[in-house]
Each structure stands twice: as structure tokens, then as C-alpha cells.
Amino acid sequence: MIFSDKYIDYSSKTRKELRQALILFSLLSNKLIVKIGHYLLKITLTLHLPVLFIIKKTIFKHFCGGENISESREKIRDLGAHNIQTILDYSVEGKNDIKILENTYKEILKNLDEGNKNSLIPFSVFKFTGLARFDLLKKINEKKQLNESEQDELKILKKRLDNICQKAQNIKIPILIDAEESWIQDAIDELTEELMTKYNKSDVIVFHTIQLYRWDKLKYIKDLHNKAKSKKFKLGLKLVRGAYMEKESIWAKNNNKKCFIHQTKENCDQDYNAAAKYCINNIKDMGLCFGTHNEESTHLILQLMKQKRIENNDKRIYFSQLLGMSDNISYYLAYFNYNVAKYVPYGPIREVIPYLIRRVEENSAITSQTKSEIKRLKKALKKKA
Ligand SMILES: Cc1cc2nc3c(=O)[nH]c(=O)nc-3n(C[C@H](O)[C@H](O)[C@H](O)COP(=O)(O)OP(=O)(O)OC[C@H]3O[C@@H](n4cnc5c(N)ncnc54)[C@H](O)[C@@H]3O)c2cc1C
């Protein structure tokens, strides 16, 4: 482990809370239990089983801030007391219902208002699929002719994007735009580039997300940088590896297309680190957010910052991890005064279940991280005895 546990402060957690977290991670480290749990979470969604209160007290409590902004404030304060900021992430995703999309749009505006009131919130974030129907984005991606009602939908989407970015600019809270599946990502890239061209003239307001598990994205960053220089706007970039690996390979197979994902994890890591290096070398043109739990990449970025004599708390560079994961990295960065913010998902519990399913899958896949989490929690419990 590169980042020591010793900077994590569990003093605000009770023995009961630590024990609950330990039980949760012990369950997540057991593949059979995860399989059953995954299945139960899915049937909870379809059969409307009355077990939401159990989920709320366990897995939801660990990985989410609350069901709404006001419920999430305690978590924001708690993190803030340790020099860790919060990126509130309204995690209702993949909905095609026009009313829900409108509601998500309004929530993003509320989220910006909260950032305006609270200095512990440095960014807002949204997903395109929170604002527009997936099938519309897919059709735009495929460059198919939109019918009249779809053209209206696109107009509404553009208006929403513009209102969000305008507000973000007025109150100076930059906005992160998440990356999604490759079969809608070209559409997201194009619309996000338009927003960056318009809103990133002097400050970086709009941050695009780049998934380096794709073999085409390192070149994309360099091309985009050239475009930004010639059109005279700044680049806002959140660098991630990518969350849809399994889905991507299934999609490529089913559609007889070449898969966008690197063939090996090593290649993905190489591209992530090369992208980090390229961006830090060109920091004068950029604002950066490194969304990663990878210790080697984080360590490399710290070294690159040192080499370039960039101050730890230089406002152009942020690090971000998901709530409930890799606290050793977040607390280390906060202790040494780097800018670090946790993604704090929130939303009605039933709507957040797909997000929780992804966390369950991820934590059972990366057994080494889950094991370190268990070790940490056991140590903390012993100290409290
Ligand atoms: C703050 C934050 C914001 C995020 N935002 C987004 C977002 O907008 N869009 C998005 O898609 N994801 C997002 N993610 C998730 C992210 O993409 C990763 O899935 C997750 O962080 C794990 O990657 P890692 O860098 O932490 O490191 P690691 O745990 O070292 O890497 C795991 C990742 O490596 C990649 N990988 C694993 N095996 C292979 C292989 N054989 N070949 C190629 N690649 C492989 C996959 O991307 C996998 O998730 C975000 C993560 C964080 C922390």
C-alpha cells in the first residue's frame, strides 16, 4: 500500500458504525454472498420489497450521503472537518421518463445553489442520461435524422445544458460532466465541447470526463487540446479509467464492432498515466480532476506535481474518490493539503440502487482494496475498545 492508513481519522465514528462497516466489507469480500446480495437488490427493485429500510441503514449509509441534499449535509460537514470537500452527485440514472428527466435537471440547479452556499462544495456534477432520453442520445450519436419531436427534445436538452453552465459560471462553481457508454459518448463529447468553447474562455467552468480504458482517448485529449488552443478556450478534464467495461465488450460483440476497451489492464494504466503526464505538462491551459482510487497513478501525479513545482493546493488540480472507498488516499491527500473531494451520491433510495449494485460489484472485484478496508476497520475497532 502506497498511502498509509495512519492519516484516516475514525474518531467521529462510533463503535457501532465501525462494526457495521466491517460487517458490510466482510460480506462484500465473499463472492457467494455478493452474488446473492446482487440478486436480492435487483428483485427489491422489481418486486418493490419492503426492505429499503435495511438497505438504508447498511450499504446506503456507507456509500451515500442521504436521500436528498439536506440529509447529506452531515456527511459534508464530517468530511469537511478533515479537509475533504464534497461533490454532491444526484445518482438517479438511466431514466427515460420526461418528468424524471425534468426533475433531475431541477435537482442539478439546486445542487449548484447548495455549492454557492457551502464552501465545502467545489464542483457540481451531472450525467447526460440524467437530462435526456438514452435513445435520443444514441440517435444523435449515430448521426441519424431526428424527427420533429426529437428535434424539440434536443432543443430542450441544449437549453438545460446552457442554463446549468450559465448558472455555474455566474456562481463560479465548475461543473463536471460524467462520461458514459461509448454508443452515446460521441454525442456527449460533441455537446460538451460546445459548452467548453462557450464557457471556458477565461475560467474553467465545464469539465469533460475522459475514460482512459478506451484506446482512442489519449489521442482524443491531445486533439482536443489543439482545438482548445486554436479556438482559445481552456480545457476542463476529469480523468477516469471507465466504469462500463463489461457492458462495452458485450455491446461490441453483439453489434459486431471493435471494442473500444484496451485489451489489458496494463495498457489502460499506461494510458491513464500518460494522460496525467500530458495534462500536468500542459497545466497552463487546463483545470484537472483525477477521479481514481489507483494508488500508483495518484502517487505518480503527486510526483509530477512536485517535479513541475506545482503547489499541493494549486486550484487547477483536484483529486476525487467515491464516498466509502479508498479513504487512505483521500485522507492522505487532505492531510498534505492537496485539493481532494469525495463524490457523495444521494437520491431516493430506490433510485440509487443501480449505483449501489455497481459499488457492490466493484468492491467484490477488487479484493485487495476490500481486504485493506477490513484490516483498517479492525484496527480502528481495536483502538476504540
Ligand atoms: C470521482 C470519480 C468519478 C468517476 N466518474 C466516472 C465517469 O464519469 N465515467 C466513468 O465511466 N467512470 C467514472 N468513474 C469510475 C472509474 O472510471 C473507475 O471505474 C473506477 O474509479 C476504478 O478505476 P481506478 O482508476 O480507481 O483504478 P483501478 O481500480 O486500478 O482500475 C480499475 C479499472 O481499470 C479498468 N480495467 C480493469 N481491467 C481492465 C482490462 N483488462 N482492460 C482494460 N481496462 C481495465 C476499468 O476501467 C476498471 O474500472 C469515476 C470514479 C471516481 C473515483
3D structure, described in words:
This protein is α/β, with parallel strands linked by helices and 385 residues long. It has 2 domains: 1-64 and 349-385, no CATH class; 66-346, TIM Barrel (Alpha-Beta Barrel). The protein contains 17 helices and 8 strands. The chain has helices at residues 15-28, 31-47, 52-57, 59-63, 69-80, 98-117, 128-131, 134-141, 148-171, 182-199, 217-231, 245-254, 265-281, 295-307, 327-335, 349-365, 367-384, and strands at 85-90, 124-126, 175-177, 206-211, 235-240, 286-291, 317-322, 340-346. Strands 1-8-7-6-5-4-3-2 form an 8-stranded parallel β-sheet. Strand 7, helix 15 (327-335) and strand 8 (340-346) form a beta-alpha-beta unit. The mean pLDDT is 92. Flavin-adenine dinucleotide binds at residues 178-179, 209, 211, 213, 240-245, 261-262, 264-265, 268, 291-294, 320-322, 343, 366.
Question: What key phrases describe this protein's structure?
Answer:
single chain; 385 residues; alpha/beta; TIM Barrel; 2 domains; 8-stranded parallel sheet; 17 helices; globular; binds flavin-adenine dinucleotide
Summarize the structure.
With 385 residues, the chain is of the alpha/beta class. Helices cover 59% and strands 11% of the residues. The chain is built from 17 helices and eight strands.
The biggest sheet amounts to: 8 strands, parallel
The percent range for strand residues is 5-15%
> What is the straight-line distance between the termini?
26 Å
Number of strands: 8
Secondary-structure arrangement, i.e. CATH architecture of the largest domain: Alpha-Beta Barrel
Which strands sit side by side, in order, in the main sheet?
1-8-7-6-5-4-3-2
Structural class: alpha/beta
Mean pLDDT: 92
SSE ordering: HHHHHEHEHHHEHEHEHHEHEHEHH
> Which range best describes the helical content: under 10%, 10-25%, 25-40%, 40-55%, 55-70% or over 70%?
55-70%
Low-confidence stretches: none
Radius of gyration: 20 Å
Overall 3D form: globular
